[in-house]
């Protein structure tokens, strides 16, 4: 059994989770403070990938990143980088579909953050940067953690946009989900089933990790 | 709030009620190879204009996918496959008789779905090597493709082994002495689950070249740099047949007969198919 798809899935999910963590946290922070109208519009735009079918997301990404499309052709000419049909394309797809999960949970956590804590920090002469990372983030860590785990799990299971943008190239872009589909399509049910078991195992492990973290949190946090 | 929910429920229920009330005459469900999408849609429109009582419903996908859907019990009256193999896998009786020239494609796990007496060879297609606009990798023919694949500096899109065009591609590999497993290890092959997916990957330029049917290249306006000969991958024959459990066998037979008429043949020929019926 070739383990490349598992390695590739985890690689894509890990890289995209790091990106989504920062993108989501900053978007949530910016929008939680924005005026109402801007907030309403941006919130819809940023949450769209969550409710759009992954195939629509994949197509939109392809329209932007394909080698014959504006962004894709520019990258190809300027850096010689192909943005479609590589494992990095899987990262783009995973970021697009998992971003709303991080953004929404982080925004919820930030909105319930007690602003008097930040004000107390300011009276002590602390910078906004310090207050954000050392006061607000620790207080909101439950929500941030939940968002990160959800984003990671979603990225790990991403299929639709990935299959359109990254395709199925064995040993290059194949992920667990595209491999299961390909094996089923070609009638290799036994092998497909083994990958399904692997998938179940990872998902169970992720959920277990969340529960353990939460229990630990409960004890150390008054 | 409560009234809102009732409104939504009523709306949803009335939508489901609309579904079945439209058709008055016979409805024929045609499962056809993805490469037939443009031509068969046109033939179907002509046919329905001449036969107002018949409604044609098409499902275009890879013949392998369609075969699986039929096995899983999908509602289907007519099956048109892009390869004998998928048809044989559904046709226990006629496997050896119709396909005597290709003994390697005999049905192993045949299931009895096809009304064998309705089966005939509809048309012949060609397998083509296509490149995106501008031919970035400079592929000139199958020989050049072999060199580029072995050098590892090209990305070829092909159908997977369940798709007829993927099977023809594998035969071309065998003809040129290329080892698919080694090529996979080098990461130069990317698999599509039907011929239209491969076609799109080439026209979008996400790959350097692709192996599809001449007719799909024609419909998509792609540049064909080489065409496979019969020595490379055998003849590409599309068989058509009605299914045993069709609810309207007469209408199915009538449409199959229509496919053999010169009027239907002209539509097929216009994109490069060779009618055989």
**Helix content, binned percent of chain A:** over 70%
Question: How far apart are the first and last residues' alpha carbons of chain B, in Å?
Answer: 63 Å
| Average pLDDT score of chain A | 89
Oligomer: heterodimer
The succession of helices and strands of chain A, N to C, reads HHHHHHHHHHH
Mean pLDDT level of chain B: 87
Give your account of this protein's structure.
The complex is a heterodimer of chains A (222) and B (277). With 222 residues, chain A is mainly α. Chain A has one domain (4-220): MetI-like fold (Orthogonal Bundle), CATH 1.10.3720.10. Helices cover 80% and strands 0% of the residues of chain A. Chain A contains 11 helices and no strands. Chain A has helices at 4-32, 36-51, 54-65, 70-79, 87-111, 115-123, 128-139, 141-157, 160-165, 176-185, 189-220. Chain A is globular, with a radius of gyration of 20 Å. The termini of chain A are far apart. Chain B is α/β, with parallel strands linked by helices and 277 residues long. Chain B folds into 2 domains: 25-124 and 237-275, D-Maltodextrin-Binding Protein, domain 2; 127-227, D-Maltodextrin-Binding Protein, domain 2. Chain B has helices at residues 2-18, 37-50, 63-71, 84-90, 95-98, 142-151, 164-175, 180-186, 195-203, 214-220, 230-233, 249-259, 262-270, and strands at 26-33, 54-61, 78-80, 120-125, 127-131, 156-159, 189-192, 209-213, 223-227, 236-242, 274-275. Chain B has a 6-stranded mixed beta sheet with strand order 2-1-3-10-4-11. A 5-stranded mixed beta sheet of chain B has the order 7-6-8-5-9. In chain B, helix 2 (37-50) packs antiparallel against helix 13 and helix 3 (63-71) packs parallel to helix 4 (84-90). Chains A and B meet through helix 10 of A and helix 8 and strand 7 of B.
